[in-house]
Amino acid sequence: MRLYHSFFPFLGAVSAASFHERTDNGVPQYKDASLSPIERANDLLGRMNWEEKVGQMGGVRRLAEAKLAFNRSNYEAFVETQNGILGYGSMYNAPLDLLPIANQVRMEQVNSTRLGIPWITVTDSVNSIYLVNGTLFPATLSMGCTFNIPLYKQVVQVLRDENRALGTYWVLSPELDLAKEPRGGRVGEMYGEDAYLVGSFGSQYVKTMEEKNEQGYIQVATTIKHFVYAQNQGGVNLASINAGINWIMNDLALPFWKVIKEANPLSLMASYSSVDQIPMSANQYMLQDILRDTLGFKGLIMSDAFGISNMFTAQKTATSAQDAAVQALEAGLALELSPGKPGYFPTLMSLENDTRIVELVDKAVHQILMIKLATGVFEQPLASEETIKKTLRAESHLEVNRNVSREAIVLLQNDGVLPLPSNSSQKVAVLGPFASLINAGSYAPEDPIDSATGSGLIESLQEALGADKVKYVQGCDIVLTNNTSGIDEAVSAAEAAGLAVLMLGSLSTSADPYMQSKRTDGEFYSHADLGFPGLQQQLLDSVLDTGVPTVVILSGGQAFALSNSTLRSNAILHSFLAGEYTADSLVEILYGRVNPSGKLPVSLPQASGATTAYYDFLPSDSVLAGPSGNGSTAWQWPQLQRESPFTFGYGLSYTTFAVSAPTLTTTNTTVQISTSVTNTGNITGKEVVQVYFRPKYTRTIEFPVRRLTAFAKYELQPGETKDITFSVNKEELGYWVYTKYHVYPGEYEFWVGTSSRKQDLKNATITL
């Protein structure tokens, strides 16, 4: 059997000669911060016994799962065999409440164990610190709406600094999966459907988190994930992925390749799905031949929660817990992220005399030690109350949050009703079950109702307009009920006010037990119907039938299929998954204080059955339905076109923009795409100029009809024109055929514009 393994770029062979060395002052080498991480890791590994090594390959998922529910006996049972990584707490916990417990167990680990190897604290960090009282940003998909990488860098700096204030030095982000399956519940955790967009955001996340501090330590280690995922059958969370290697290499793996090349992340999480019928946790071909040997990844590979255990309990590809652990180890996994219960790697304890297993464990533990040493956890001081109070929710952090929240909202439709007059006596009926809560996502640490930081739409509107001008009627529940009495009340409120704002959506939250029963989105929640859950569509239709001017605001991570009746609305805004200032930003946009500038990072399907809605489809995917000559222009029956009306990159503004046709030139290594963008309207606004390409003809494989290769966001005054030149490396214009990457000479077509829609693009062709 071939065993595939690789080390970090700064790792070398473990040198036995360096074991047990001491510095001139008698300190063991691994405790001497003046030495390199490789010298320290080599020394420490040589001092460790078998139990200490295996113990490093797992840890305590979280110190607490509910408010201060720290259980000392459970903790000690875990620590006996799993003592490498530590989860600070859960979305229910406040940092200062947990701080004494966290610091106590950190000190115990250093002072009461033979070698004093410290914990490294690991956490999810999607849109906050995964604890209450941090800065709560909009979720990942909403970040993708901004198309603003410099602004996102500021967001990640906040997440990095707030995590470090808690003593957290390793995060389980960014998620590089492509949101191309709208039925999947985890779409809200992803940046979008396009590989270049996702890779751009992911690369910035890794670079910012792993930036070195003044002492030369990596500030926070990152974990790119989930390799590979997000094209699960039917959108079902744990379902398998049936994809050939060309599809994987030219689609699912592309954002990983981009981030690996640009940012060199320290770790990667394998998905818990099967790919081509082989569980990723034991998939040597995907994790070694493809990920390491072809894509060049050199960091640590960890399992997802359930990733190793699923092989035994669900996928039935392992005969025992130990068999699953050995398969994962042989595939290259170094760390097990266990789902809050004893993991499977501790079963390796009985294999101390198996020289092959010992070698693999040594390599795995060496990688774990290197991350601990690279982030400085051996030297970092304990978290302090003073630092936490000073850092979490600092005013500069909240200002970044306000700015990104304003750019994370997409205007989909507007017949001129928006912006609403700000100095009017017009009352407004606020309707729908999402107007009273913050729908922040399944990895958000806030209760979406009472204890949430920030406010829902009702509170923000009342603060802006006065309570006397805002009438709220929920109208219906989130989930299906037989109670329609609220709909009549909502209709009456709309007619009385003369203006209706409905906030509808799909709930993705984990923090509130009561709301759990109403949850319809997020991890483990898939969608057989892409319409609104419950009676929300009936509520909307009833209000629209009144003829009252109606603004619809969408909330949730899923890509809703907007029915023809929904499109009767005078305006539609999409807020996706919210942060604490999303409601305030919606009010600013509704009343024209902020000009919307968000763009769709995912294409919205036209119907629940039209789930292949993504923009970068293959040419043959758009062949017209019906026999030749019957006059059919439909892609599917009933009459649907392959390109969604609300497609990737689309989003309206209160002003208008014009983008000129591109001019193409070349250097030895790049294609230069020159264009200009003009604000042709009457107010200041921001526009995202997008560049797409495709080779006119390809060899062997089909290439998408177009693919994003550059974008940038610009703010323009009325009448202002900005000249722009994008430089695209020619190496970015190729494609994979099996595991060989090719950039062929020939004609290439480039488009520039304001979305991926044909009517929003202008093109030019060049021969390379």
Automatic annotation (TrEMBL):
SMART domains noted in UniProt: Fn3_like
One protein family per Pfam: Glyco_hydro_3_C
Enzymatic reactions: Hydrolysis of terminal, non-reducing beta-D-glucosyl residues with release of beta-D-glucose
Domain of life the protein comes from: Eukaryota
A GO molecular function held by the record: beta-glucosidase activity
Functional pathway: Glycan metabolism; cellulose degradation
First-tier enzyme category under EC: hydrolase
Alphabetic keyword roster: Carbohydrate metabolism, Glycoprotein, Glycosidase, Hydrolase, Polysaccharide degradation
InterPro entries: Cellulose_deg_GH3, Fn3-like, GH, Glyco_hydro_3_C, Glyco_hydro_3_C_sf, Glyco_hydro_3_N, Glyco_hydro_3_N_sf, Ig-like_fold
Domain Fibronectin type III-like: 687-756
EC numbers, comma separated: 3.2.1.21
GO biological process, one term: glucan catabolic process
Family: Belongs to the glycosyl hydrolase 3 family.
PANTHER family xrefs: BETA-GLUCOSIDASE, BETA-GLUCOSIDASE B-RELATED
Protein name as annotated: beta-glucosidase
Originating organism: Lophiotrema nucula
